[in-house]
């Protein structure tokens, strides 16, 4: 079976089980969406937020890109896909929480650490350049695990950049929107949460 055939087989399972069993929910979803949470994650195939958080369609508005980055607010320049999704989630859907979720073994972060200039990285280098300041800081501090340090630092950069968007900052100040930082360890299957007061990540305790 080809990889694409395997994908279609998955679709057939969805039609037979997931869709049929939750048909009513799908009918409700056809009238609109009101997700309370936005997640900004990495494209990496191993860190699907719907899997990690066991969510159903309609619950979470998800934006994924290389290294789960948010650029700073700016009006000029190129096309602003992240900013457009953010604007829609915050001003139209009215999400109450935004989680920026980094992860272990992130290829984008690794590329930033290894430096720029590979000829086949036409777009990636510029994009992960958003982490250059954080990378310089991490390299200067020479931590035991620079990859993880930059993955964690990258989440903080994205949170700081989120707050440069006036519609985010205003709602956060008014208590209508909460920002969260997280990091998922693929090796452990564990989510770490950022405590912004102390600037450190710690595992979210298992229930029971
Ligand atoms: Zn990644």
TrEMBL record:
The keyword Zinc applies. Its EC number is 4.2.1.1. This is Carbonic anhydrase. GO terms for molecular function: carbonate dehydratase activity. PANTHER family: CARBONIC ANHYDRASE (PTHR11002). It catalyses: hydrogencarbonate + H(+) = CO2 + H2O. InterPro entries: Beta_CA_cladeB, Carbonic_anhydrase, Carbonic_anhydrase_CS, Carbonic_anhydrase_sf. Its cofactor is Zn(2+). Belongs to the beta-class carbonic anhydrase family. It comes from Sphingomonas kaistensis. SMART domains: Pro_CA. It comes from the Bacteria. Reversible hydration of carbon dioxide. Keywords: Lyase, Metal-binding, Zinc. SUPFAM superfamilies: beta-carbonic anhydrase, cab. Transmembrane segments: none annotated.
